[in-house]
Design goal:
The chain is mainly α and about 100 residues long. The protein is about 60% helix and about 10% strand. It has one domain. The chain has a three-stranded antiparallel sheet with strand order 2-5-4. Helix 2 crosses helix 3.
Length: about 100
């Protein structure tokens, strides 16, 4: 089966059809079916691609399974969001 070549050359927040990595179409479909990424009309949102890259990196480097890697990425994203909120509140209090 043919691999999907992905070339990412757009700004964050845009939907993209091609990225800079190669994924087997069945892998992308599996992650779509699991609700990890959303593929709409053969396009994937930049944030979904970023999330998928993190999940695959955790699986490859640490040996975490897909569900565990997804949970870790979700928690890291929430921590980052909370840190941004804390920084924003600190700036408001400091003003």
């Amino acid at each position: 089966m043919k691999l999907v070549r992905i070339h990412c050359h757009t700004e964050a927040g845009e939907k993209i059809t091609e990225f800079k990595m190669e994924y087997h179409p069945e892998i992308l479909e599996l992650y779509k079916d699991m609700g990890i990424i959303d593929i709409d009309k053969e396009t994937i949102h930049y944030e979904d691609l970023r999330r998928l890259k993190k999940i695959l990196r955790l699986k490859r480097n640490i040996g975490v399974n897909t569900v565990g890697a997804t949970i870790i990425v979700d928690l890291l994203d929430k921590i980052e969001q909370m840190q941004d909120e804390i920084e924003s509140l600190r700036k408001k209090v400091g003003d």
